[in-house]
Amino acid sequence: MTRRREIAGAVGGGLLVLACAAGLLALGPSGPAGPSRPSTLSAPPPPADRLAAARQAAGQRPTDATAWAELGIAAVDRARSTLDSGQLAEADRALARSLELRPERNYEAQVGSGQLANARHEFATAKEFGLRATTMAPDRAAGYAVLADAELQLGDLPAATAATQRLLDLAPATAAYTRASYDLETHGRTAEAVLALERALELAVTPGEQAFSAHRLGDLEWEQGRPEQAEQHYRHALAVQPDDHFAAFGLARTAAALGRTDEALGRYGELVTRVPQPQFLLEYAELQLATGHQAEAAPQLAAMAAEVRLSVGPVDLQLARYLADHGDPAEAVRLLTEEWQRRHSPLVAEELAWALHRAGRDQEALPHARFAAGAGGAGALGAYRSGVIEHALGLPGAAELLRTALRRNPYFSAPYAAHARELLGANPAG
Hints:
There is one protein chain. The radius of gyration is 21 Å and the shape is globular. The chain contains 23 helices and no strands. The longest helix is centred in the N-terminal third of the chain and has 18 residues, at 65-82. 72% of the residues lie in helices and 0% in strands. α12 (227-240) runs antiparallel to α13 (245-257), α18 (329-342) runs antiparallel to α19 and α21 packs antiparallel against α22. Among the domains are: 50-171, CATH 1.25.40.10; 184-275, CATH 1.25.40.10. The protein is mainly α.
């Protein structure tokens, strides 16, 4: 399925990425300095508009394979920040031109092609490009970022950690520390994940890096049930990059959590007008439904239904969530089962478990829910879903899972949090 979603650098695992967080954050990489490590002190500042500069360079040097590869990479980066999937077509053309000009030993094009595949959620293909790049140049960092992102999404968490650690060793910069934060968060090491993101923010060079690090700090505060602190980080992100759509999404979420419902509805409405991305549409509709605005929720749900009909390719997990809760759970099960066969990611396992539950197949859902919780350090939403599934099966751990969800983040979802309290009220000791 097509997806207008930022493919943030997301990694998982559990080896030694910040195994001693304070020391590693203070000292940089765990290994000796490599010859290719860049100096952040002497590096020239990036151009204000990287994509425009790359287009100009490719136009001035039309037979330069590196210039075309850099244009492709810049276009992928722009697609990530704006959620404009149209930029991916430009990236595809530029990278194809680069490989046409230099089919062999074209490191930049291998990296760019891997980034493009990750952005399209073609993770097995991205892994292939990442492996080619890291084999071609084992002491260059960018290939390991591609590989870390792909391995996480494919569910190979140890491999993702290994790639992240190598990235930290070679280039302890923002890209490495944001991935390290995902690794730590995946394993429930939230305090260390915050330290990694704070280091990423300190090292950030571009407004995009600053905004991404800041809004990810907001996400971590949100996941811990601290909307006031999250709101501060989201405002910081928007101050440095006003078109950071995920920071705008965070402000809508935090406004709702803090009881400013009208403000939240307004923020969601403005956001989906600009960027009708599935996650934004779904949470907007669910807030409307939870606050008695059923008629107003209809356009968001209709937009999701239309996107499902038009979608091709890899499964969008947000659209699958829409199908499970507001559409056709059986179709969600079918799509997610196919996705699970492609990649054993904890994210896919959690969504498949929930779709199976919504389809009335709780016994089949249980192992997927437990896999997701065990492999990915499930947050409040995952704990809630596991609790609901175990409650449906009459298992004794259901109540504790529901309490865990509310303890981790009592604001994680307006309808689901209310449902968790309802189930606990009916069976508080179960």
